[in-house]
Design goal:
mainly alpha; DNA-binding
DNA sequence: TTGCCATGTGAATCCGGATTCACTACCGTA
DNA sequence: TACGGTAGTGAATCCGGATTCACATGGCAA
């Protein structure tokens, strides 16, 4: 599978990119060392010139992708900064959902697919960060009297988790009679608004 | 680890039980063929006298446990059959959560931990069934005017998924500063009531 | 020119399980 | 007592992937 070799891009980057692409296409299972190296146009051994182990490579991929997601969510919140909290929350979670639906396999890998302890730890850390983005707006909403008092951390976790898992179904490899993306998004918006106690 | 051998119980059953126990304690990873056989007080080869493969054994364990969960949820709904739908829904999901919190490792295995295609297929099937239990009460509630119109299937999925993932955090192996079970249950009850649009 | 370092190679090796199989032990029946 | 079938044994084998390592190659500085 010798690709049109992107010699412009340094090997290390190419390896990271190959790994991400393979995960996007077929989950962690599809991203074997040989496959990754192959796609990057190098030999398997080369991977070990740039990363101490496959795990570490995965961690780096994972971090980069999660950071991108977090940025997208924060940006969404930013854009709505002058709108009421419920609208902001709806937007933030809709952003999360939209992106997941656009890249289902990757989303599944980020949200649920276990890999190894190193990556799993990273996952937990990022879940926490997503929840914090939500929690922030929840607090603001409560402060402004736009939302009722509630356990902010748990609601935030339930929302991230909730939307995540709600997506995992529609996302999952073999689901057949899946509803359209628009329907999913719509139902999730309603769900979020209600769950936070918006009018 | 030759246990006090329960020769009263047939080997096949003992194997199923060992597997379940090992999964409860350490997830699928801890349930190797040798470990399972060991705990059942037989040799590895014996497992293959009773099951065509490890996968098939897992599927059987998984089915049994999921069926038990489903029964618990249905029973909870049954008991509340004369109460309003929102109360029933709260009860059903609280049952789900309570049981998960009581047996975190197993819950994690059922809800999220990937194993192999056979078992994963089973998981999807059961998620669907849990969602149907919810959907049933949602429909009843809408019919009785106790709940607003909504996309029943998606809300049900979001709730099962939502509670599931919300639990996964608190459940997960290494989470430290986890809130008390009571707090989690409480926040989830509120969450559920709001999410379905109850007054 | 020579030596050294960084990078790349890919076949050989290692490793952790699942799976097999030739053999034993026991039980009920002819 | 012999026979066949069922259950059990556990060391040997197989298998898929990560990891290693002895051997290039090319650039750069002494």
């Amino acid at each position: 599978m010798a690709e049109a070799e992107q010699v412009l891009i340094p090997t290390r980057e190419r390896l990271l990119r190959s790994a991400r692409e393979l995960i996007e296409e077929g989950g962690y299972g599809a991203a074997s060392v040989v496959a990754i190296a192959d796609r990057a146009g190098v030999a398997a051994g080369t991977l070990y010139r740039h990363f101490p182990s496959k795990q570490e490579l995965f961690v780096e991929v994972f971090r980069a992708v999660c950071a991108r997601e977090e940025r997208a969510m924060r940006a969404a919140a930013e854009q709505m900064s002058s709108n009421p909290a419920p609208d902001r929350l709806e937007m933030v979670l809709a952003t999360f959902a939209r992106r997941a639906l656009r890249n289902p396999r990757l989303a599944w890998a980020l949200i649920a697919e276990p890999v190894d302890p190193l990556v799993d730890a990273e996952r937990l850390a990022y879940r926490e960060r997503y929840a914090q983005v939500i929690a922030q707006d929840l607090r603001a909403g409560i402060g402004a009297g736009e939302l009722p008092e509630q356990n902010v951390e748990l609601t935030a976790a339930a929302l991230v988790g909730g939307c995540g898992e709600a997506l995992v179904g529609p996302l999952s490899p073999v689901s057949s009679k899946r509803p359209s993306d628009a329907e999913v998004m719509d139902a999730l918006r309603t769900f979020v608004r209600r769950a936070v106690g918006a009018a």
